[in-house]
Amino acid sequence: MQYTDEFKSMVAAFMRLPTEFPNVRPASVAQFILESGRGSSLLAREHRNFAGMKWRPEMAGVATKKLVIAPSETADFCSFESLEKFAEGYWIFLNRAPYEGWKAHADDPYDFIGFVGRIWAADPAYTEKVQNLIGEAEALIATLREPHVHTDGAPCCGGMIDPPEPMAHREKPAVRWDPSPFNWSRGGTRIDTVVMHYTTSRNLQGTIDWFKSPNNIHKTAAHYVIGRDGTIVQMVKDADACTHGNSQNRRSIGIEHSAAPGDPMTEPQERASVALVRWLMQEYAIAPERVIGHKCAPRATSCPGDLFAAYGATSASDCAAVTRAIQTWVRERVLAEGVIA
Ligand SMILES: [Zn+2]
Ligand SMILES: [Zn+2]
């Protein structure tokens, strides 16, 4: 099914808007699919009206009146200046007198459209057409819920529907400061990304020495290196950039984990990594989907190796599989342990 990009953004905006009646949403999205031709209609493209809503005076707070020559008829329709206004407008439209009683049918999307459909449209087959699209609507909603990263380094589109739960405030975990000379200015770029690496060696001191060595001609470094025993060594100030993640250097914090090829994280190392990533996300308001693997920087590299093997990615995995594994790790470890009860 082909949706316009704006259609998907609209569904995300609609899902983000809180409602007492979440079970209605798949039926509403099915209406939007049908009414707007998956976002392709003139009303959708020019007026952000994805539901064929005619102008009604109650809509004055969220929409303007526009005479539109639509395929169905020439009439006054609602024109919305933003997707958020459209989402809000849908509920206002529904809460008008003609639909009174819909809340008694709000537990089930099929029941809901069974009640609303015959009022919404003159077409006697409208209800059945919408009901046939509820499965598609549910699949689209599920797709938009999946975390995702942008491998081209584009800023995040905010594609996640559910905002992350607020995290309990955490202090920065204890670090040992052992500075590397290989750092440079971010040039004003905001920190919004964490890049996860492995060192290909279990020797923490070896990595520290390398990030200070005159033989390191590419002057590579990382902000943090986490040893097998959970020791965290900070080598570059967060405020500065360093060379670890290609296109992501200016915007990111780099975390190295001591690990030989094939090694997953040790338990103390993972605890330290979880605590550090959680603190970084909190401190710099980093979105969960912006914790990425070096592979997605993007770069042909085995990094981050087998650190996330328990979450489904190995050194042989591609960026997409590494992303899924890291996102699972963030959800199950970093966010789960930090949520306010
Ligand atoms: Zn995004
Ligand atoms: Zn790396």
From TrEMBL:
GO BP: cell wall organization; peptidoglycan catabolic process; peptidoglycan turnover
EC class of the enzyme, as a word: hydrolase
InterPro entries associated with the record: Amidase/PGRP_sf, Amidase_domain, MGlyc_endo_b_GlcNAc-like_dom, NAMLAA_amidase_2
Domain N-acetylmuramoyl-L-alanine amidase intervals: 180-305
GO molecular function, one term: N-acetylmuramoyl-L-alanine amidase activity
CDD domains documented for this protein: PGRP
Alphabetical list of SMART domains matching this protein: Ami_2
Name the UniProt record assigns to this protein: N-acetylmuramoyl-L-alanine amidase
The organism's taxonomic lineage, starting at the top: Bacteria, Pseudomonadati, Pseudomonadota, Alphaproteobacteria, Hyphomicrobiales
